[in-house]
Amino acid sequence: MAESLLTVVVAILVNFAIALAKYVAAFFTGSASMLAEAIHSTVDTGNEALLLLGWHRARKPADEQHPFGYGQEIYFWSLVVAIVIFGLGGGAAISEGAWRIVEPHKLENIAWNYAVLGIALVFEAVSWVVAYRAVLGEQPDMGVIAAVRRSKDPSRFVVFLEDTAAIIGLLIALVVGTLLASLFPELYLDAIASVLIGLLLLVTAIFLMAKTRSLLIGESADKEIVDGVRALLDADAQIECVERIITTQFAPEHVIVNLDIRFAPNLSSDELPHAIDRIERAIQERFPEIREMFIEAQALTAR
Predict the structure, then answer these.
(1) Distance CA 165, CA 200 (A)
(2) Looking at residues 176-203, what average pLDDT do you find?
């Protein structure tokens, strides 16, 4: 959890500083793509602040109204982040590019763009490396794309995807919106770059919406957890068979498990509570992210 917090805080500081620099460059150059990038960084800064809010609220202890706690707050605020990226980020960048096609504006003081975009690339790369390591830290044995798809922690995968989109957007602004636009101003490449940045944000937002929606409505825990629980149960001499294992990923480090177990027919009613306690301890020692466990016992007498 501490690594997740570090990822978000680093991203907020980086994006806030970059947003200010981009607004200054957009003012002096009149570049639509630079203004789109400034909006992009502003949205990213706000989004990461929302993630920080979600992270804080998700740590509230359970109470009578929310007996499992508030862990899903982080998923709710991640969905809000995706909507903000879609509406404010993508929509504003596309609108700005479309307006500049209708009302073209010649680029001025182009050196501002090169300086700010170059510095921004360096800082975004630093933030991206932090987010990349955080994502792979969850799933060290797989590639980054698979790790993002499997990740249950929005403070990791949201920041990573935002930073990835930010670097791609910077390259679009640098190559298409600055270099090529200064060489071929009659082709409206600066405005086109702004539209491309907006489309990039829309694609990122749609993926995040799908991912966070899936987590919010309830995904199962990782296959490794399910398989590990089944292996522990199969190895237990007092269990005849495992009828069903149901898991729900309630929060990044909070899994709920329901077990439907058929115990051995020679297990007495006095031995049953001890067997259940032993099984719960063994599973939670192996998988501490399993916070709640419900066991349904069957067939306590010989058939």
Answers:
(1) 7
(2) 89
